[in-house]
Amino acid sequence: MAISLTESAAKQIQKQLAKRGKGIGLKLAVKKSGCSGYAYVLDYAETLDAEDAVFEDFGVKVLVPKDDLQLIDGLQLDYRKEGLNEAFQFNNPNVKGTCGCGESFSVS
After folding, report:
1. 90, 98 in Cβ contact below 8 A?
2. Which of 51, 84, 89, 90 matches a 20 to 30 Å C-alpha distance to 42?
């Protein structure tokens, strides 16, 4: 099981953590949501929980609840700027479909 970051995503996470002044990394989870089934949840990680798997790229830690790994194994988190828009992009090889608004995804 593996989760990876692009250099752009790692730099953005480092920037946000530095601005915030605390945190050990990024928490990436999945919740049931939307019309397709699941949605990504991003938050700051303050502590490492026993049920978290830890992945690290470019000096940045990503913590993922072990129960969510089967839905996002192989995911690459990217950060892109396109014109005036900036956002994290989830490149998840397990996704079989997304909803029209792009807020949720399905894996079956």
Report:
1. no
2. 84
* Residue 33: Cβ within 10 Å count: 15
Confidence band (pLDDT; 50, 70, 90) for 103? low
Largest CA distance in the chain: 40
What's the CATH code of the domain at 15? 2.60.300.12
* Total-model pTM: 0.86
> What H or E segment, with its residue span, contains residue 8?
helix 7-20
**Radius of gyration of the chain, Cα coordinates, nearest whole angstrom:** 14
**What is the number of H-type helices and E-type strands within the chain?**
2, 9
Range of the domain at 101: 4-106
Q: For 36-59, what is each residue's pLDDT tens digit?
A: 688 899 999 999 999 999 999 999
